[in-house]
Amino acid sequence: MRILAMVAMVLALVSCTNQKSPTGRGQMLMYSQAEMRELGAQSFAQIKQQEKASTDRAINAYVRCVADAVTDPALLATIDPTQQETWEVVVFESDQVNAFALPGGHIGVYTGLLNVAKTPDQLATVLGHEVAHVLADHGNEQVSRAQMTNAGLEIVQIALGASGTENQDLIMAGLGLGAQVGIALPFGRQQESEADVVGLELMAKAGFDPAASVELWRNMARASGGAPPELLSTHPSHGTRIEDLQNLQSKAGQWYQQARAEGRAPGCRVPR
User: Which positions ≥6 away from 212 have C-beta within 8 Å?
Assistant: First the structure.
């Protein structure tokens, strides 16, 4: 009966697959936009309690300038017409080379990132990428996939117990690793690559030079030193990422030239 109940739950979860990402990829989304906004707001509130916000006015103004350009409502509507957020941007005083965006319109940038994303165009590459994760509902995908993976593993655990199989803990550990490498991590790389594509479109349409994206990831490669093997990473390798971005430059360059012709020149200046 427990196995039947779990199977019924998995079938119910599978019935939630009826969504397309901005690149046309099929998605499984179990949560509503309202639920994801609430999760994003809760997560951001917790991060703000844990991290120290920068009080440097020049740095805050600079990051806000780039973020405002990338999150312009008219621009975001070209990717996702449902996005009508007023984006909150917080700069955190930290050596972390990182930034993030959360559902509901929240962006966090760590000051350490500014040592690697050295120009407005490079910072726009990162922020466009992070905002693209939100537009493409990647957070929703992640929690939905986690629900499916956990439910599937629980079914196997119940079945092993019912059959009296020996070494159940070892088998479950193997299944857990298999689920991680075979499902979660490749899926994460797919999301990262998709965010690169959509993020490049965002930054170029906002008037930032897409050629800077290649240099940004070269900077990242130098800053990260020895990165983990691509097979066991949620991100594409730096070399793969750079090659993919180079292949997108022709189309992105057209968006950039059109943006400049229409007078979109954000004019953000790096603080001295």
Answer: 119, 121, 122, 124, 125
Cα Rg of the chain (Å, integer): 21
Backbone angles phi, psi at 118, to 5 degrees: -90, -10
Most confident of the ranges 75-84, 93-102, 137-146: 93-102
Look at residue 181 in the predicted model and tell me its pLDDT. Answer: 46
Side-chain half-sphere of 176: how many Cα atoms within 13 Å? 9
Residue 57 clears pLDDT 60, i.e. is over it: yes
Active-site option among 85, 88, 130, 262: 130
Q: Is 230 a catalytic residue?
A: no
Q: Are strands 88-92 and 26-27 parallel, antiparallel or unpaired?
A: unpaired
Q: Which residues make Cβ contacts (< 8 Å) with residue 189, sequence separation at least 6?
A: 230, 233, 234, 235, 236
CA distances in angstroms from 191 to 22, 77, 111, 121, 205, listed in the order given: 11, 20, 25, 22, 21
Confirm if 138 and 195 have CB atoms less than 8 A apart: yes
